[in-house]
Specification:
single chain, alpha+beta, Methylamine Dehydrogenase, Chain H, 2 domains, four-stranded antiparallel β-sheet, 17% helix, elongated
Length: 470
């Protein structure tokens, strides 16, 4: 999907990734279950968004809090058009020309990108029910790459000096300048700060944060960096070349911090949430790429049974989406909430999840059995565990704890009574009996009749059962 996605960017002249940072990897470390959904399961719905007028391909570029998906699709005549899907797929039109590309969207379903005009120039647009021409910085072209929830748009535009400069549009297009060289490109925006990259006076590529002034974020010791994402607190995530020539992900919070790797040479930070957690991928000690979540420590999210994975999106719940190889070598989209869940595919060999909202709506793209790419929307919903099954899990933990026979019979009898109260609809009594089990186990741990580890396993299972009772 990344190659297919980049091919559409190349067709519009918009491959703005840092070429020095194309190699992406992460290091091996113990996998950590950061936010387990105890005894719960997931209800996953996958929707093929189709294409426009029978065309061959469509790609998602963002998802709103309501699950509306923005993207671009190739028509049956081979022309690219921007779309918004909110049940049906809507063609957003053009600025008078024949093609339009979407590159980003916000939580309100506003879409940005670029469109050909009647004079065949490529102009940035904002679609908020109507496609608006955002103009240029005096040159012949502009491209919008991201939009915040205020409708402020960032990207880059040719100036009257025929060089590309980053811009912010908030009703009028503002030139954000450069770090001394040209070009500069804006990639992301929060409610007032913009991040991206610019050439310096010496010709190095450096990440920047603009808050009225363009600040050079520096590097991790090498000659290039760029900032890819920014959260509501002004923390930026990106990638930089190190002094040794490796590519590492970074966090910038006034100072640039090396995220390290998963044991290999390289890592790549792709997205940051409002908690300062970063999703990306890194090379492991074996040389394979693995998805990671960084929260002060880089955690290996593992794979779906294959060799490699990468993470592309993260929401404010710390849920991560991306893609992983399966044991059969196919690439499947995944959702991670402490466990990596296979989101499936459309029957082809590749599916990639790239964007996730706080409400559990996910957008990405997948190949069909015929080899075409289609935009996809997944919805993930946590299904609470069945209370009786949750109590059975407590019983299993008790039986595995190695209690003296009399103590085990006593605790199991209490759990059987709790399960009976659930079946009779008496939630209060069942809760009281489960709490009695917790109290009894805590007493056994304190008196050294039960190990702390075994006792905690029983207590955790009992608390999960209480939670399942609602």
């Amino acid at each position: 999907m990344r190659n297919a996605f980049r091919s559409t960017l190349l067709s519009a002249g918009l491959l703005v990734v840092l070429s020095a940072c194309e190699d992406t990897t992460r290091p091996d470390e113990e996998r950590v279950n950061l936010s387990p959904q105890l005894n719960s399961s997931l209800a996953i719905t996958m929707t093929d968004l189709g294409t426009l007028d029978g065309g061959p391909d469509s790609y998602a570029v963002g998802v709103s809090s309501l699950g509306h998906v923005a993207g671009r699709a190739r028509s049956s005549s081979g022309q690219w058009r921007a779309f918004l899907w909110d049940g049906p797929m809507h063609d957003l039109g053009t600025l008078g020309g024949v093609e339009a590309f979407a590159y980003g969207s916000n939580n309100l379903g506003h879409v940005v990108g670029d469109s050909r005009t009647a004079s065949n120039e490529s102009h940035a647009f904002l679609w908020d029910g109507t496609m608006r021409d955002l103009g240029t910085l005096g040159g012949g072209g502009s491209h919008a790459l991201a939009v915040n929830d205020l409708g402020h748009v960032v990207g880059f535009s040719t100036t009257d000096s025929l060089v590309d400069h980053a811009f912010l549009w908030d009703g009028a297009m503002r030139d954000l300048g450069t770090l001394g060289g040209t070009p500069s490109i804006a990639l992301a925006v929060n409610l007032g700060q913009v991040v991206g990259w610019s050439l310096t006076a010496s010709g190095e590529r450096h990440g920047f944060l603009w808050d009225g002034t363009m600040h050079d974020l520096g590097t991790l010791g090498g000659t290039s960096s760029h900032a890819r994402a920014v959260n509501a607190h002004g923390q930026a995530a990106g990638v930089s070349v190190t002094a040794s020539g490796e590519t590492h992900g970074f966090l910038w919070d006034g100072t640039i911090h090396d995220l390290g790797t998963l044991g290999g040479n390289d890592s790549w930070a792709d997205e940051i949430n409002n908690l300062g957690q970063i999703a990306g991928w890194s090379r492991t000690a074996s040389g394979a790429y693995h998805a990671f979540l960084w929260d002060g420590t880089m955690h290996d999210l593992g794979t779906l049974g294959g060799n490699e994975s990468w993470a592309e999106g993260i929401n404010d719940l710390g849920h991560v989406v991306g893609a992983s190889q399966t044991a059969s070598g196919e690439w499947h989209a995944f959702f991670w909430d402490g466990t990596m869940h296979d989101l499936g595919s459309l029957g082809g060999t590749e599916a990639f999840a790239e964007f996730i909202s706080d409400g559990g709506h996910i957008a990405g793209s997948a190949r069909t059995p015929a080899g075409q790419w289609h935009a996809i929307q997944w919805t993930v919903r946590v299904v609470p565990p069945d209370p009786v099954e949750a109590i059975a899990n407590v019983t299993a933990a008790v039986e595995a704890a190695g209690l003296p026979a009399g103590a085990e019979r006593s605790v199991v009898a209490t759990l059987d009574a709790a399960a009976l109260q659930v079946q009779n609809g008496n939630v209060v009594a069942a809760t009281q009996l489960l709490q009695a089990v917790i109290n009894q186990v805590e007493a056994m741990v304190r008196s050294a009749r039960l190990s702390t580890e075994a006792g905690q396993a029983i207590i955790d299972a009992a608390r999960a059962a209480i939670a399942a009772l609602g």
